[in-house]
Design goal:
By secondary structure, the protein is of the alpha+beta class. The protein folds into 3 domains: 127 residues, Rossmann fold (3-Layer(aba) Sandwich), CATH 3.40.50.20; 138 residues, D-amino Acid Aminotransferase, Chain A, domain 1 (2-Layer Sandwich), CATH 3.30.470; 63 residues, ATP-grasp fold, A domain (Dna Ligase, domain 1). It has 11 helices and 19 strands. A hairpin with a 2-residue loop joins strand 4 and strand 5. Helix 3 packs antiparallel against helix 4.
């Protein structure tokens, strides 16, 4: 079928599906929640996306992905189960098949590759990176190992898996004190401790094991901490203004991140040389592993050199979160930021 219209006075034929795709509103599933300790933060992020999306261009649907249920939640908080065979929902006898999924899940299954692989199998465009990149970046140990040959430095580290013998002397010989004990695959500083004494190591390890069965123990890096947002925007890799992180607490823990015990200063108060170095490294990391979508990488400057801590591929999207603030300083509104992520996902699948 073809539709005809005039263009500079000439009758021109266009495929009907082109015009329909151009003019029809897109149905967007915003997935939020997840199976980890971060699910409440994810719900906040997802609701911000829902509130900010352009209602003239998108029909947005909040989808809660929880261990016990996958449900569409309407404005009255009524719930309708999601059909997991094709990721559709049926509302008043009308079945909604989504044009794109906006991923706002922090932690598993939205930040470790599981949801990405699921949508890729179903052929549904999504705003986050690919399943491999998601799994890699969620595993701090593997990510830092992959990036090391590309000149991206990281702290001295020691690895433990659940059931391994805990040799405190070997750990201290490798990373010294103080050190950080982290759950390898967790976010929002869940399961992390700063350890000053040998006798406190075992308790910190037990705390980390509550979040993950893999542990990363890292040397303490004393320096300025910065966060660098890198996104795909208008088809190109874009590094956002850098954020400097200072905290009232001993480190940038959950309380500092979400309960007002820190300052997040954008743009960061760093030298031009430092800005150039960390911008180049953040962009290199993003492109080396073939990222897309949003990312936020953390670095600490030691003797003027940036050391990478981690990369988050589903960073917080609340109005108080770092990436939205970086976008604002760059002159990008939340509505534009979220719309661009959807446009990039749809463009990749045309």
């Amino acid at each position: 079928m073809e539709l005809f219209f005039t263009y500079f006075g000439l009758w021109t034929a266009w495929p009907a599906n082109f015009l329909l795709n151009y003019t029809m509103k897109k149905s967007i599933a915003i997935i939020m929640g997840g199976y980890s300790s971060e699910y409440q933060i994810s719900l906040k992020s997802g609701n911000v996306v829902y509130e900010c999306l352009n209602k003239a261009k998108f029909d947005a649907y909040r989808i809660h992905i929880l261990k016990e249920k996958w449900v569409y939640v309407d404005d009255a908080k009524n719930e309708i189960s999601v059909n997991r065979h094709d990721f559709s929902v049926t509302i008043k006898n009308s079945t909604i098949h989504f044009d794109c999924v906006f991923n706002a899940i922090h932690g598993t299954p939205g930040e470790n590759g599981l949801m990405q692989a699921y949508f890729e199998l179903l052929g549904i465009p999504h705003t986050s990176c690919g399943h491999y990149q998601s799994a890699l970046t969620f595993n701090k140990r593997d990510l830092l190992s992959v990036l090391k040959p590309y000149g991206i430095k990281s702290a001295a580290s020691y690895y433990l898996n659940f059931g391994d013998t805990i040799d405190e002397d070997a750990i201290i010989e490798r990373v010294s004190l103080p050190c950080f004990v982290k759950a390898n695959r967790a976010g929002s500083s869940f399961g992390i401790s700063k350890v000053y004494r040998k006798e406190d190591l075992r308790q910190a390890i037990e705390k980390a094991y509550k979040e993950d069965d893999e542990i990363l123990i890292e040397a303490f890096l004393d320096g300025t901490e910065v966060s660098v947002g890198v996104i795909t925007y208008n088809g190109k890799t874009k590094v956002l203004p850098i954020t400097e992180i200072t905290t009232e607490n001993d480190f940038f823990d959950y309380e500092a991140k979400y309960e007002g015990k820190s300052q997040e200063i954008t743009p960061a108060r760093i030298s031009g040389d430092q800005e150039k170095k960390v911008t180049e490294l953040a962009k290199r990391a993003y492109e080396v592993i073939k990222m897309k979508g949003f990312s936020r990488s953390e670095f600490i400057f030691v003797n003027n050199e940036p050391y990478m801590l981690e990369m988050n591929t589903t960073p917080g999207l609340t109005k108080e979160s770092i990436l939205p603030e970086q976008a604002r300083v760059a002159g990008i509104s939340l509505s534009t930021l979220f719309e661009s992520a959807i446009d990039e996902a749809l463009r990749e699948n045309t």
